[in-house]
Design goal:
homotrimer; alpha/beta; nine-stranded mixed β-sheet; 9 strands; UDP-N-acetylmuramoyl-L-alanine:D-glutamate ligase; about 270 residues
Chain lengths: ~270, ~270, ~270
C-alpha cells in the first residue's frame, strides 16, 4: 500500500483512494484522536458512540468557560448546526477561534439550513472561517448554494470556498473542487436512523486529525460509514437494529474489508 | 376499508377504529409529515427514531430565533414538559403561537406534573391554548385533574377542555369526551424503557397531521405503539432489546397486522 | 444471608460484600427509589435506561425553578460534571443544597476534570459539600488528587474527604478510606460505550438510597454493572450490541448470580 502522503498531489485511482481510506482507519485506531463536537441534542449520544467505535475519543461540552480548553486539547473539531441555540452559538465562536489559532482541522455540518433562513445565513458566515470539510445532504446544499447538487456544482462550490465537501445521498459525492469521487456504499435504512449523517460528519473530523488531505479524509469517513452501514444492514431487521449493528461493524471493520467493499468511481470536477 | 372521513361523525365500532388506525399509518408513510418536537433531553434521540421508523420526519430545535420557522414548515407540533427549562419555556410560547396561527395540530405531554407544582400550573395554562390531544400517565392525570383516572373522569376532563386524551397504562384509555376506547395492546417491558411514553406522544402529533379526528389520531398512535411494542417484546430479552426491536417493528408494521392484533373495547363516557 | 446492617461496622469478607451487594440489588427492586440526575447531555438517555433496568426511577430536569422540588421528592442525587454549563451549574447549587438539607445521599462524577482546570476547581469545591461517594476514572483521579491512583493513594484521598470512592478501570477499586475492595468484573468493550461510567455513577446514587454504608453501596453498584457488563459481552459483537445487552442483563440479574460471578479481593488501605 502506498502511503497517503505519496498519494496526495498526484493522480489518485479509486483503488488508491480506498487504500488511503484503509490507512486512515488504521491511524485512527493507533492515534486515538480526541474530537470535540458541538452537535445537536438529538445526535450527541449516537455521535459519541460512532467516534468511540471507530477509534476516536469524543468530548461535547458547550460551556463557554470550558470549551476553549477542551478544543485546545483535541485534535479536531466538529460544528453541527442542529438544535442551534444561544449556547451553541457562543460555543461555536470560541471553539472555531481556538481551532483556527491552533491549526486544528474543523468540519461544518449545516443541518437543516433549508428550514430556517437565519441558520443558512449563519452557516454562510461560518464558511468564511475555513472549515477543512463540509458534510451535508441535498436539501442543505441547495439552500446554501442556491442550486441543485451535481458533480459540477458541488465541485465549484468546494473550489470557491477552498474546502472539501461530502454530499450524502443515495450515492455520496466527495470533492475538493479538483477531484470528485462518488461512493456507492451504504444502505437506504441508514436514512431512517436519526443522526446518521451527523455522526458521519464527526467521523470526517476524526479522519482529518490523522490525514491532512481533506479530500482523502472526507472520502475515508464516508466510505467507512457506508461500508459499516451496508454490513450492518445485512444483519438488521429495521432502523433499530441497524443503528446498533453499525456500531459493532465500525468497531470490527478492518482495512482490507474496507478496500474490498469500496464502490468508488471518479467524476470530472467540471463539464 | 371505509375511509376515516366516512367514519368520523358516526358510530364507530372497535374494528372501525382499528381500520381507521391502519389508514392513518398508511397516510404517515405516504405523506411523510414533519413533526416539530419540543421534548426533554432524555427523550430526544429515541423520539426522533420512533418518528422516522413510523414514517415521519422529526425536527427538534429549541432556539427562539429559529423555532417559529421550523414550526411554520412542519405539519404538527409536540410540547413535552420533561426537563422543562427557560429555553424550552420560551420555545413553547413561540411554537404554540405559530401552531395556533397556522392551524397546526399540537399535542401536550405533561411529563412529571406530579413532581413539581410549578410544572402543573404551567401545564394547566397551556391547555387553554387548545392542544388537539393530551397524552399522559395515571400520576400525571391525577395531578392535573385532582382525581384518579376512570373512564368517566378522563372523558369528563377531555370534554371540559375540548381535547382528546390518551391515558397510558396497563390498558390505554383514549377519549374525546364522547367516545372512550380502551386499548389492551402493549407489554410491561415498555415501561422499563425511558421515553417510551414521550415517543408515543410524538406519534400522536404525527397522526394528527394526517387525521383531523383527534380521537382517531390519538387511538391510532397508541395502537401503533402498543402493537409494535408487543411484537418487539416477543423477540426481546429485556428493556435494551425491546427499545431496539420496537423501532424495527414500527418500521415494518402494516395495516392488516395492526387490525388483526388490535385489542380495542369501547366504554361509556359517563356513568 | 446476613443483613447488611449486621455486616456494617465489622470485618467484611469479599463474599460478605458480594452478599451485601445482592441484598442492595433486591432492595432496589423492592423500593424502586427515585434518583435525580444532573448529568451530561450525552449520558442522559443511557443513564435513565440503566436506572430503569436496575429497578430505580430517574428524573433529569435542570430547571432552577423545578429542580428543588424534584430533588426533595427523590431518594438520591447524582451530580455529573460532563457538558457542564451555566444551567447545570445553577442546578447543581440548588440540588446539592436540597440534598444536604433533606439528608439525601449524593454522588459526584467529576467527568473530564483532566481536560479543563476550571472544572477541576469546581469539582474540588463540590467535594466540600460532602458527597457520600465519588466515582471517577484514573485520569480524573490524577487531576483531582495530583497523583496516580494506587490503593494507598485512593484510600487516603477518600479518608481525607470522608467519602467513598469508586475508581473505574480494568479492575475497579472501591474504598472508604478504611476498607479497599478490588472488583475484577467487567469487560474491555464497556469502555467503548459512551456514558457507561456515567451510568455506573447514577447506579451508585441509586444504591446509596437503599444502603447507608457508602462503601457497600459503591461496591454494589460497580459489581452490578461489572457482572451485567461481562454477561452482556458474552452475547455481543461490539460496542453497539453490548450497550443494548447490558440493559437486558441489568434487568434480569439476580442476587445469586451476582454473588457467584463476583471477583472481589481486598487490599490494604495503607502501606
Amino acid at each position: 500500500m502506498r502511503s497517503p502522503d505519496a498519494v496526495v498531489g498526484q493522480q489518485l485511482s479509486p483503488n488508491d483512494l480506498a487504500q488511503a481510506a484503509a490507512a486512515v482507519l488504521d491511524r485512527l485506531r493507533t492515534r486515538v484522536p480526541r474530537v470535540h463536537c458541538i452537535t445537536n441534542a438529538v445526535a450527541q449520544n449516537f455521535t459519541a458512540n460512532v467516534l468511540l467505535a471507530a477509534g476516536a475519543v469524543p468530548s461535547m461540552t458547550l460551556s463557554g468557560e470550558e470549551i476553549g480548553a477542551f478544543v485546545a486539547r483535541a485534535q479536531a473539531l466538529l460544528v453541527n448546526l442542529g438544535t442551534f441555540d444561544r449556547e451553541r452559538r457562543e460555543a461555536t465562536g470560541i471553539a472555531v477561534d481556538t481551532a483556527v489559532r491552533n491549526g486544528l482541522p474543523w468540519v461544518l455540518d449545516p443541518v437543516f439550513v433549508d428550514r430556517a433562513e437565519q441558520r443558512a445565513v449563519y452557516a454562510r458566515d461560518l464558511i468564511f472561517l475555513a472549515p477543512k470539510s463540509i458534510r451535508l445532504n441535498h436539501a442543505e446544499f441547495a439552500a446554501l448554494a442556491a442550486g441543485e447538487p451535481t458533480p459540477a456544482s458541488v465541485s465549484a462550490f468546494a473550489r470557491d470556498r477552498t474546502t472539501a465537501v461530502g454530499l450524502s445521498g443515495e450515492t455520496d459525492l466527495v470533492t475538493d473542487g479538483v477531484r470528485v469521487a462518488a461512493i456507492g456504499n451504504g444502505h437506504p435504512l441508514m436514512a431512517k436512523v436519526t443522526a446518521m449523517g451527523c455522526a458521519a460528519s464527526a467521523l470526517v473530523a476524526a479522519c482529518l486529525s490523522v490525514e491532512s488531505d481533506a479530500f482523502v479524509a472526507t472520502a475515508a469517513a464516508l466510505l467507512i460509514v457506508g461500508v459499516a452501514g451496508e454490513r450492518a444492514a445485512a444483519k438488521s431487521s429495521g432502523p433499530g437494529s441497524i443503528a446498533v449493528a453499525i456500531l459493532d461493524e465500525l468497531h470490527n471493520l478492518d482495512g482490507p474489508t474496507l478496500v474490498s467493499r469500496a464502490h468508488i468511481t471518479f467524476a470530472k470536477a467540471s463539464e
